[in-house]
From TrEMBL:
GO terms for molecular function: acyltransferase activity; peptidoglycan L,D-transpeptidase activity. It comes from Streptomyces hoynatensis. GO terms for cellular component: extracellular region. Pfam families: Big_10 (PF17964), YkuD (PF03734). This is L,D-TPase catalytic domain-containing protein. It comes from the Bacteria. Keywords: Acyltransferase, Cell membrane, Cell shape, Cell wall biogenesis/degradation, Lipoprotein, Membrane, Palmitate, Peptidoglycan synthesis, Signal, Transferase. The keyword Lipoprotein applies. Pathway: Cell wall biogenesis; peptidoglycan biosynthesis; Glycan biosynthesis. PROSITE patterns: LD_TPASE (PS52029), PROKAR_LIPOPROTEIN (PS51257).
Amino acid sequence: MVRTRPRRAWIPAATAVLFGALLLGTAGCSGSSEANEPPAGEGATAEQAEPVHISVAPGDGATGVATSGELQVTAQDGTLTEVTVADADGAEVPGELTEDGAGWAPTEHLANDTAYTVTATGKNSEGAEETVSSHFTTVAADATFTTNWNIPDGAEVGVGMELSLTFDAAIENPDEVRDAVQITTEPEVEVAGHWFGSNRLDFRPEEYWAPGTEVTVRLRERGVEGAPGVYGTAYEDLHFTIGRSQVSTVDVAAHTMDVVRDGERVKTIPITAGAPGRDTWLGRMVITERLVETRMDGETVGYGGEYDIPDVPHAMRLTNSGTFIHGNYWAASSVFGSENSSHGCIGLDDTRGASDESTDAYWFYEHSMIGDVVEVVNSDDEVVAPDNGLTGWNMSWSDWTAEQ
């Protein structure tokens, strides 16, 4: 066997020196061996990045969870992309992500004694997703309170309408209950609530509503603790519209009523108001009920035995205490416009049977709606109390919005 020696490459000396210099020069430009490593962030993969860590409070399987304040979803080493909280029927709880995407919380109270499933998805800085799920059950209510309201869904009402809520249990946490009533309007106007005692909460703007205003009311009292262990049940959306403006001013001394619609006087009607000693309340009142005919018995308002009329025509309620503006067929026509003879109501000339279209009472009834304003001036009585009907307009805005 013959072995051959490998041939050596021959490089001229000058070339070898130059090649070495180039190598040295290249190393000098790099600054260090780090030139062979990718820049920070380059070459890393989603699998190499720290995964997003999602936490749900309360913990999985928790029971007796409060209806507010406990549910929260957070993310570390990444951001949340989607959070769903739903009950067994699939009804979802609305909520909001924080601006940085690191947290989520509900925007409404949870329902009592309800099982919820939380599904939360997040991603890390490289876009790798993680999803977690958790289950919990809320606290049962010892008792509940119900809510009644005075405006039917879809109603058109006058510019003096107030939303009045009444509760069948005394409310000891008024701020929480008030905050659970969410009111939005188009065009936008500030609407504030005022408590009358512990069972009634009314809402209105500072001035009469603008005609055409669209109002949406979201009652979100379900799960709200109105008193220790007593939770609300109302979860409703209501919508109503403000119709044309009609404000009628009753001048007791002049025995007249000016009907002003959309800023223009459309009719002046002769009236009779409360006789001396049975004066008609002063102030602004709102029509809350319209009855073609109704019985009026003095026994129910402190005038026992003085009258009992079974068929009072064209009656519209102004106060809870029994003040009406109504037709009057039993007084002589000469009384209207010249004399105050009623027991505190405002009377308009009418005929028995409520069918005579020629009478002032018929006209006013047909041209009025729930929520219209009747303001009484020049009476010797006191200003009507702000809770005697929808009479909160007799309070200043500062008093209406004062902390209670």
